[in-house]
Amino acid sequence: MSGSGMDFSMSAADRQFREELRSFLRENPPASRSDTFEAGLAWQRVLHTGGWVAPHWPRTFGGRDATPAQYAIYWTEMAQVGAPQIANRVGVQTAGPTLLAHGTLTQQERYLEPLLAGDEIWCQLFSEPDAGSDLGGLRTTATQDGDTWVVRGQKVWTSFGAQSKFGLLLARTEGPEVTGARGLTCFVCDLDQPGATAKPLTQMTGDTEFSEVFLDDVRLPADAVIGQRGKGWAVANSALGSERGVAFPMKEQMVLGARLNELTARFRTERHHSPALRLRVVDDVILSEIFRLLNLRTLTMVARGDEIGTWSSVIKMSWSRLAQHLSETALDAHGLAGIAGDPDLSFEFLRYRMASIAGGTSEIQRNIVAERMLGLPR
Predict the structure, then answer these.
(1) Could you give the 3-state DSSP secondary structure of residue 242?
(2) % the chain with pLDDT above 70
(3) How far apart are CA 190 and CA 176, in angstroms?
(4) pLDDT-derived band of residue 244, with 50, 70 and 90 as boundaries?
(5) Number of CB atoms found within 10 A of residue 235's CB
(6) CA distances from 269 to 82, 124, 331 (A)
(7) What residues contact residue 85 under an 8 Å CB cut-off, 6+ apart?
(8) Of 34, 36, 62, 110, most Cβ neighbours within 10 A?
(9) Which positions ≥6 away from 63 have C-beta within 8 Å?
């Protein structure tokens, strides 16, 4: 991908990349499409044997130096074989890129390899009961005590908090007189120690992916700081940009694309569905294509070295709309008998209720686009 627009041609290197991946997937086909943590961990370990967990990472740290175009190829091929999601996706999509961008060499050498292997699971310790979309209002503190930091506070909506060994922690370090986005610091937080307690939250799906995490006098060494003290807001924005900008949307394009393919195949063979429901499937195809093209534009921006910035909010809103619309259509199309035979349908419908909240609410994302991209008044 080069030039002023999107170039969809495939180079010789791209074709070689695709063939290497296809060869690996032929020899190591996914054992299951299950979205359970255990199935994701098993699949991640299979991918790790061939260096395919994070191909867009540098080779130095377990990746393949894949270009943005090759990263798009990667997710396309994963979708075609029905691959499940990896278990340590917060680590690969958020914590790892943050360490690559802001961590010290010592931190990178210590944490990245076991993160890719799935030996050490990571979570993101940002949101709090009174500071979700507005991270500037968080209250968790980290206070220096000699050569250690003492952390006190509570986090919530922590994906895989109960399974995690480490967390990407955002805490207030500069005292109560420094408020808002100022005075925050980002840390590597070891959760396998006294004072760190994760309590799973049962969602309406029956799943317990999220947890509350309580940090009661948790001690972190001085070298746990990521980036600079007091500059955690910039590190957090980098982490959220990684979450929304490339890896997460491409992964969701794979997941939602597989469901859409199943749905459209069903409608080609079944003729009893109402015209209104058929039009909804057409809407899903259009929304999916919009999401795909927006993702390709993101990859083009990355290839040029452009900052994704506010564009990540556009991607987030596109995903939210597609995920909820598609899950509703699939549920209605299958009817009660189909739901009974395919519990994944009702699970997806309930799970994607969070799509307009997770990663920053749609209302907040609209404000960001309006103010920062369109120049509208607050």
Answers:
(1) helix
(2) 96
(3) 25
(4) low
(5) 23
(6) 21, 44, 17
(7) 35, 40, 251, 255
(8) 62
(9) 51, 54, 55, 56, 57
Above 80 in pLDDT, residue 247? Answer: no
Closest CA to 213 of 111, 114, 145, 138: 138
DSSP reduced 3-state for 211: strand
pTM for this entry: 0.85
Residue with the larger pLDDT of the pair 205 and 195 = 195
Q: Which two tokens stand for residue 61?
A: 């740290």
Q: Which residues of 300-324 are buried (b: 16+ CB within 10 A; e: fewer)?
A: bbbbeeeebebbbbbbbbbbbbbbb
Angle at 259 between CA 346 and CA 311, to 5 degrees: 105
327 touches 352 (CB < 8 A) = yes
- The answer to whether residue 15 scores a pLDDT higher than 50 is yes
At residue 86 the predicted structure's pLDDT band, cuts being 50, 70 and 90, is: very high
Q: How far is 219 from 239, CA to CA, in rounded Å?
A: 23
Longest dimension (CA), the chain: 72
Quick one: CA dihedral 22, 28, 34, 38, positive or negative?
negative
Of the residues 77, 120, 243, 252, only one is catalytic, namely 243
> Hey, what are 318's tokens?
């596109």
pLDDT, averaged across the chain: 89
Query: What distance in Å separates the CA atoms of residue 75 and residue 199, rounded to the nearest whole number?
Result: 33
* Beta-strand runs (E) in 129-226: 141-145, 148-159, 166-172, 184-190, 196-200, 210-221, 225-226
Determine the distance from the C-alpha atom of residue 39 to the mean position of all C-alpha atoms in its chain, rounded to a whole number: 18
* Contact between 329 and 280 (Cβ < 8 Å): yes
Question: Is residue 233 classed as helix, strand or coil in its secondary structure?
Answer: helix
Which pLDDT value is given to residue 4? 42
Report the alpha-carbon angle 58-59-64, nearest 5: 85
End-to-end C-alpha distance for the chain, whole angstroms: 36
| CA angle, 350 then 351 then 354, to 5° | 105
Tens digit of pLDDT for each residue in 289-305? 999 999 888 888 887 87
Amino acid identity for residue 84 in this structure: P
List CB contacts of 110: < 8 A, sequence separation 6 or more.
Answer: none
